[in-house]
Amino acid sequence: MSKILIVMSAADTWVRTDGSAYPTGYWAEEVAAPHERFVQAGHTVDFASPGGVLQPLDRHSADPAIAGPDCAHHVAHAERALREFGPLLKLDRVDVDDYAAVVLPGGHGPVVDLYQDADLGRLLTAADASGKLIGAVCHGPAGLLSAVDADGRWLFAGREMTAFTDEEEQLFGTAEGAPWLLAATLREKGARHSQGPAYQPHTVRDGNLFTGQNPASSAPMAEAMVAALAQ
Q: Which residues are in the DJ-1/PfpI domain (predicted)?
């Protein structure tokens, strides 16, 4: 079986265009569903973040009115997995050669730090060059923006992917005042972005790149990656 690295944001605050602070953290389903699928398939999962910082839970992901009736299970699983793993690995000390896949969950944190994290950029560049699987769900694809070369060229330009849509950001109530919108930015940078209905599962595979649109896409994306690892 393989080792899989889940790279989490370290951000707990998203500063809005008016200067206000929006509390953020990891989205439970986006950590729990992939972790659960990977472990059930016999894989080992490590967690890393910038500085090894464990960000808090995004409380919205624990609200059944927002995150659905299974959110208590996702919260419990994510909290248990993170607690049992212990201190997160520091991203700048991770050796990508140790892993068969790298996965980026969301919550709004990745649009705060991971999108410009040079250590993540180097890790993703090395992972892609060696054909390792790369997964990113919801706001996680913001982390893909970190992979640029010395001339500023984006590694994933021209690739097919999906991410949390501008429509979903508006429906969630966080589009107004956002410093930038993820899906629009991915398209501007050259991604071939597609989307399904708001908050419904939608996943895209482009070679070794697996992306999911929203929290509901977390498990389907992970299942696609498990199937690919088994080939």
A: 29-227
